[in-house]
Amino acid sequence: MRKTDFGPMPDENGYFGNYGGQEIPPHLKKAMDDICESYLEIREKKEFWNELEYLYKYYVGRPSPVYHSRRLSEKIGGAQIYLKREDLNHTGAHKINHCLGQALLAKYMGKTKVLAETGAGQHGVALAAACALVGIKCEIHMGTVDIKKEHPNVTKMKILGATVIPVSRGTATLKDAVDSAFEEYLKDPDNFIYAIGSVVGPHPFPMMVRDFQSIVGKEARAQFLEITGKLPDYVMACVGGGSNAMGIFTAFLEDESVHLIGVEPAGLGLHTPDHAATITKGSPGVIHGFKCYLLQDEKGNPLPVYSIASGLDYPGVGPQHSYLKDLKRVEYASVDDNECLDAFITLSRTEGIIPALESAHAVAYAMKLSPSLGKDVNILVNLSGRGDKDADFVAKKLKL
Description:
By secondary structure, the chain is of the alpha/beta class.
């Protein structure tokens, strides 16, 4: 049943309720408005969507399948767990969905270089591949902590022709990489474009990335109906900035029977400072040019955050997620590092699927919830990426 009408999101000023917008200086506003105008222009062109759909099918390998994890479901007990296999995409995660769209937009606008940040490296690899495909220079800023942890992805970015800029300031992780990339972008916004890696940043990026990622939910909804004859009871996805979650949630927002759950990283525990559970523990604030729930100090400065999953350690979150929390349309939960690692190993050894540590957070929450539910209940997890990049790190940590 589709009763609730959430209306157009965002509004013309880029707000999702009280969140989003453009909290940026005047000279940067013109650059953002130019990007927005070009995006609104290009998305009305049939040839743009034809090219993107062609690349999704023949370059990315879409549609990604929905897979019934029978052995995992049997092992855990309770509900049936299904996976939307974004890990099977070219470059190994959902990130390629919006990177192709942004690379085509950069080409359409005549930009000479695409800049971006990356945490786990999946956005960096996907953008490097997309830029190689369309013939535009690519520069990726990455914290030195993440470079060491996710070295396989750093190698891939370099092979694909991207310039990788190490960032050692602050915590040397995702937030600091964003700061560094944005500073480089400000040097020449007329010729450069900043390809944000999630549904965050100033308008139009939260809208634009969501639109490109919505292919995940559109496919999953149709596939699940075909496989089971009904909609899933639960849809879950990990949330850092929130692009993979918004991608799959969008198709189910108006289905009141579908319980949507975003899973944040509790790190070493919500009772410690070492987590990145932004929506669970944060409050409204401003970061990187937009309003959202934010982990912040008494002066409004972003707090240092931590997660075992490099792609989730961001102190802010997408403005649409912030709005959906306030509307109580999406429930936001969290799992800690140990639960994440357990899910990583359990899925690997019951289904032969090695998930990204980011995605393992959502798998972990499905495993936690499932035993309390009946066997006729279905859980759909967005498996946002594969764990090749994390394999050595996990093996060392668990002494495998």
